Amino acid sequence: MNYRHAFHAGNFADLVKHAALLRLLAELTAKGPPLTVIDTHAGRGLYDLAGPEARKSGEAEAGIVQLMAARDAPADFSPLTRAVAAVNEGAEVRRYPGSPWLIAGALRTADRYVACELRPDEHEALRVAMRGRQNVRTLNVDGYAAAVAECPREGRVLVLIDPPFEKPDDYRRIVETLAALRRRNGQARALVWLPVKDLETLDSFLRDLEDEVAAPMLVAETRIRPLTDPMKMNGCALLLLDGPDLEAPLAAICAWVAQALGAGGGARVYALSPQ
Ligand SMILES: C[S@@+](CC[C@H](N)C(=O)[O-])C[C@H]1O[C@@H](n2cnc3c(N)ncnc32)[C@H](O)[C@@H]1O
Fold first, then answer.
1. pTM for this one?
2. Is 114 in the pocket of ligand 1 (CB under 6 A)?
3. How big is the CA angle at 208 (ends 202 and 211), to the nearest 5 degrees?
4. Best substitution site from 2, 53, 117, 173 to test ligand 1's pocket, by max atoms within 8 Å of Cβ?
5. What's the 1 CA to ligand 1 centre distance in angstroms?
6. For atom 8 of ligand 1, which residue has the closest CA?
């Protein structure tokens, strides 16, 4: 477990993921019975962009710093830029909120949030970041197993799956987790983040999903450069399983990131049709 999200917090992929997540949460919490959100790979909750990791990678500088200065970003980014401004108290961008911070801030008092993080040091930072929030539980556990165990058998559930993809079995575990979640609760929804290096890996994952998970799915791809070097993270994709219709906002989010923060990439949003 070498992965540390502190190197990547606030990069182009976080902007896509977090703008989409906030848009989805706004939709799911606008009305309706209580929602349970389970975050399988939560990270530490709040990131220091002035720290050595972020400064070394420069990814936040090329990501959130550009978004905060942009005048042409679509309104779909506003909940994220507001959250970033709030943690920075209006000053320069030195802190970036991770998924736990954004989710906890978006939920209603009757909603619940379970945040899973496997690394003990990251989990300890997460526990501190979430201290005092009544409807939040943090668990120092494997998020794939916990997602299924913690998923209520009835009621509204959203599972965020955002692994580091350090291990080759992450793709398989995502498919198995989504299938198990839907068997346990037919209303379970999910948002999954995926890297895009080459198209074969993404396509083969999507084919497995179509074969094994019977639910409507939307895929939103953002490429920041052409896929000529499969060793690089050339983009990212989001998979929305059984979500509300977010095709237009996802298209706007992905297109802006590809165009404003990338070079020669592009964006596309498409539905999958399970067997
Ligand atoms: C991409 S980061 C998460 C970022 C976070 N979701 C956000 O948006 O702010 C992935 C995290 O998963 C943790 N991790 C790795 N394997 C895990 C597992 N099996 N279960 C739970 N957490 C895991 C890593 O330590 C890392 O903090």
1. 0.97
2. no
3. 140
4. 117
5. 10
6. 99
| Greatest Cα-to-Cα distance within the chain, rounded to the nearest angstrom | 51
Q: Are 101 and 14 in contact (CB under 8 A)?
A: no
76 lines ligand 1 (CB under 6 A): no
Chain segment 110-129, per-residue pLDDT in tens:
999 999 999 999 999 999 99
Contacts of 124 (CB under 8 A, 6+ apart): none
Over the stretch 67-105, which tens digit does the pLDDT of each residue have? 999 999 999 999 999 999 999 987 799 999 999 999 999
* Residue 107 belongs to domain spanning: 5-272
User: What is the best residue among 1, 12, 22, 41 to mutate for testing ligand 1's pocket, by most ligand atoms within 8 Å of CB?
Assistant: 41
The C-alpha atoms of residue 162 and residue 194 are separated, in whole angstroms, by: 7
What CA–CA distance (Å, rounded) separates 125 from 131?
10
Q: Is the CB of 3 under 6 A from ligand 1?
A: yes
**Residue 274 confidence (pLDDT):** 62
Contact between 134 and 111 under an 8 Å Cβ cutoff? The reply is no
Looking at residue 207, which CATH number applies to its domain? 3.40.50.150
Instruction: Give me the number of domains the chain comprises.
Output: 1
How many angstroms is it from 84 CA to the middle of ligand 1? 20
